[in-house]
Write a structure and sequence with these properties.
heterodimer; A: about 100 residues; mainly alpha; Helix Hairpins; about 75% helix; B: about 170 residues; Four Helix Bundle (Hemerythrin (Met), subunit A)
């Protein structure tokens, strides 16, 4: 069992999250993809903590779990708000910022 | 050898769960795939000898985040015409995977330049983490507590029913 296996797993998970973020339109799947990318970074931090023999990496991963929890709360509240306003969870509906002067 | 087989099983669980997460059409099944991936991550933390992190992962990510997202999915209950229309979903996923593959290799190669052996260290238990957290990392810890408080308040404010929309829109 070498650190490279853990690094390979973390890279694959990060890329799967990136693929989900780019290719899907469902707001919930975008949210879960972001969570997966953050979790893969915390896996890298925990592995580095073991490689370097220093507990700071584990503490950073622990703090990141808190950041993930707060991100989940805000993102889910945002999805509920958007669904209540527009009755859809399609991310292509929310394109007001990309239109510029046309809808001002 | 035992460790490698446990790692392989957990890695298969995580990768399979995350692929199921991004490729499923039903949102609830995606959430189940996400749940499997998070439990596998907790197992991998335990395999890295950091038990406290594994327990925190189980309690926060599995117990709170995934359950909260499942509750929200079931509360929103989007079906039929409220769901996004994605006819070429699988084609898009395969196309994006091919685009992202060089980035994966780059990321792995960059991480593989680090030393390729674990230092012989004791398990990272809650005693070590507690000492580190309240000596060197006490300022980030306090900032995180303020972040959690503000996230709670902002979640309540954002998800609240707006009583007078006209005043807000004008």
């Amino acid at each position: 069992m070498t650190p490279n296996m853990f690094f390979l797993l973390a890279s694959i998970l990060f890329s799967i999250g990136l693929v989900g973020l780019v290719s899907r339109k469902n707001l919930f799947i975008l949210y879960m993809s972001i969570e997966l990318m953050l979790s893969s970074v915390s896996l890298i931090l925990a592995t580095l903590s073991k490689v370097l023999g220093d507990a700071s990496g584990s503490v950073m991963a622990l703090l990141m779990i808190g950041v993930i929890a707060s991100e989940a709360a805000v993102f889910l509240a945002m999805i509920v708000h958007l669904y209540r306003e527009n009755r859809t969870i399609d991310s292509d509906t929310f394109h007001a910022l990309s239109e510029g002067e046309n809808n001002a | 050898m035992l460790e490698i087989s446990i790692f392989s099983i957990l890695a298969l669980f995580m990768i399979g769960g995350s692929i199921a997460m991004i490729s499923n059409r039903q949102t609830v099944f995606s959430a189940f795939g996400f749940l499997v991936a998070m439990i596998g991550l907790a197992g991998i933390f335990a395999l890295l000898n950091s038990q406290f992190l594994a327990v925190a992962q189980i309690m926060v990510s599995v117990g709170a985040v995934v359950v909260l997202s499942m509750l929200t999915i079931l509360t929103v209950n989007a079906n039929g015409k409220n769901m996004p229309h994605e006819p070429n979903k699988n084609k898009w996923i395969i196309f994006t995977s091919i685009l992202v593959a060089p980035f994966t290799i780059l990321l792995y190669k960059a991480l593989a330049t680090l030393p390729d052996h674990f230092s012989t260290m004791e398990t990272i238990n809650s005693k070590v983490i507690g000492k580190e957290l309240f000596s060197e990392w006490v300022l980030p810890f306090e900032i995180l507590s303020i972040l959690l408080l503000s996230a709670m308040v902002s979640a309540i404010v954002i998800a609240r029913k707006s009583k007078n929309k006209e005043r807000g829109r004008s």
